[in-house]
Amino acid sequence: MTDKITLAHGAGGEQMDSFIKKIILKHLSQNIKNVEIPLSMLDDSSVIDDIVFSTDSHTVQPLFFPGGDIGSLSVAGTINDISVMGAKPIALSSGFIIEEGFSFDLIDKIVKSMATSAKQAKVPIITGDTKVVEHGAIQELMMNTSGIGKRTKVLDENIKTVKRYRTFSQRWLLDSNLQPGDAIILSGTIGDHGIALMSYREGYGFETKVKSDVAPLNHLIESTLKVGGVVAAKDPTRGGLANTVNEFSEKSNYQIILEEEKIPISKGVHAACDMLGLDPFHIGNEGKVVLGVVKEKAEEILAEMKKHPLGKKASIIGTVGDKKGYVVMQTKIGGRCIISKPIGDPIPRIC
Predict the structure, then answer these.
(1) Is the whole model's pTM more than 0.85, yes or no?
(2) Residue 50: what pLDDT?
């Protein structure tokens, strides 16, 4: 029997990892001289001739949700994927695939939202494409945004600061850059986007307490680079915090030790997860970043993050251990448990 694609293959967990490695990389992974960060490294963006390039497609349902919509999500998602490499986003493209019969008023509202988010981030949308397909061919609207970024002196100075404290050979912020002793910093509460969207979609009512965190993070990340000492960064989208820290651990080949009591989770997300049997560590976010930083600069970087509106609830949530391998969490009751990647996404179609 021929294997079939399921929702889990696009959900950010183990099944998506397997699909990408077995199918995508088998055909598209190429060694090209001027590609510094290739597709095969599976970071959030690739780098060619010092140009950082990323693309992201959006199938979120519903299109409008508490705290955002597919327009703001598409802009923020691509900006954040470029920013976590340490680059400065400079321009975006936008592609629309619209179902025949879609409302002019709704598409106007979505494009207006995109413009607002792009202006907030100071990253213009400069090119794009529009296609309309027959009614029933897709579900209302799907979008793609791509973006480019460039290297700046801010990143170079950040790396100079890193080198004052330990050996560092990379030119970009990569998942594989972590070393023993580095601190792990989270910019704020987890699970807000997934819970807000699911609650609104299913009618649970938690959206009265929880709103999506969708936001461009480029200014927040730049402020931490100006302090110096950042070695890795990643936005915990599909698969949530659990997927992000496991990617850090797998690619760096070191254990990550988290402290449960240090991980900020809002009361609304706690309540929803308890009622629905969900793990907040597996739920996607769209306005948070996880940083790996040299331990000597951790407190200074944390203080800088807390000055920013998107980092007020930032916390140092763990450290990189000297053992190989996996993510372990020190629980509030004094035990330890392993934090694994989710197999799929407990809340599909959130981005």
Answers:
(1) yes
(2) 95
